[in-house]
Fold this protein.
Amino acid sequence: MKTQFNIVAYSTQFSHLEKHLKPLYRFLNSSRCNWRRFLLLLGCGLIQTKVNSLTKEERVKVLIFDDSLFSRTRSKAVELLANVHDHTTGKYIRGFRMLTLGWSDGNTFVPLCFSLLSSHKKSSRYVEMNDGIDKRTAEYQRRKEAVKKSSETLQGLLKQALHAGVQASYVLFDSWFNFPLTILNVLEQGVHVICMLRAIPRVYYVHDEQKLNLNALYRAVRKKRGKAKMLASVIITLGTDEQGKEVLILTEEKFQEIFDKFLSSLPKYIKGLLGVSVYES
């Protein structure tokens, strides 16, 4: 009886606030609001007004990209429903992929942008976009973006975050985004890339004037003995910029600096994203 009385008293005390909450509920349920812009401005303001004052200037700040499965296995008529790949199980599941961009300084994580992705292949989509949507609205732009490649969406989210004033030295993502063109496009925006490389047979890296794929490059590099944090480091050519200048990545000095100053302070969930445990003793 005492618990019931407390609940009734609590609900009666705040019942006069219900009329003030109705506009908030309508705002949260509105599909015409630009939620991405709202979340980006909110996160950027939180970083600039609250988090930066608690963080040293020399502390490394990063932007993190990650996608997760949004399963809708029992749905049939959901707009832009598609057959998407589940990286965890290796199977294709009916649903969507949620691409999320967040900011972190090693201790604090702030979500900034998100994008619900369908499939860029028309043959993989069960339901197409509603043609009656006004093309001037944000909901139409989100639907057009949902059928793009995830690497193109990644570049768009990164540009929006940097244009909003978010400061970061590195961009982190897993091996599903490590295509050379994606890395070069991120470098063009003035941000370095930290990612795992996926062994793709048709992707080559130039080392000692030889084009090698990742497996051949690993065999050619001399490894350190024992339980070392870094088994090996090598300078490779990933591509060329517009002036024909070679773009070099994975320099030994830069890699060692990252491990000493940054990776030691990363939370466990970011280490799991990067697979840092592979290099740790």
In short: Residues 197-281 form one domain. The chain has a mean pLDDT of 78. The chain has nine helices and ten strands.
